[in-house]
Amino acid sequence: MNTAHLSALEAKHAVLDQRIYAESHRPQPDTGLIATLKKQKLRVKDEISEQ
User: Is 23 buried (19+), middle (13-18) or exposed (0-12) by CB count in 10 A?
Assistant: First the structure.
């Protein structure tokens, strides 16, 4: 596996994690957005684990 690709996936995973955290700590979090971000994060995690 290409190390650069794996690093990019890990960075994307971290960004999604930060976005989920930020949205969930807002006064009125958008639960639909949080669910979408969590699904994206899970897809990235699955792709990382396949490597």
Answer: middle
